[in-house]
Amino acid sequence: MDPSLALFYGWIIRTREELFEYTTSLPDEIYTYEHPDFAYGSLRNIQAHVANCYLGWVGHYGLGMNEDQTHFEPASVPDAEVMRVKFAEVDRIVEQACRVFDQPDVSFELVRPGRDRLQVTQRWLVMHPITHEFHHKGQLLALGRVLGYPLAPGGDTDLVLP
Prior knowledge:
The protein is mainly α.
């Protein structure tokens, strides 16, 4: 695949680490607290949703991995350090895709049982979860603020500089 995608994903990993620095600083009961007014309910569940998105699109649909390898239950993650380990597996899968996807822009039909068929590319399978992650990062930080744990002043979780 285009080597710039692997480079860009490296920036994503570094950016995500800044968010992990924030979430690991929180008490575990705040990290896992279920707020009824937020989608996915907790900081942990938001991060699990993002990880599962990568695992599903890149691992299952892109690399053909079994579903039991490409999904985990949020409740199996007690704290942000364990979530960091889950994302290390996500990183290995995305990095594998960046090595083996050899037709990044050739469209193919993706069949999802019981759902619409999609025309996608290998590049899209990687890019979709990346954009999805940034969407949910804002949601995670908003929930942290509502729970009384805003990001420290001057903190920045935007894309890191190259």
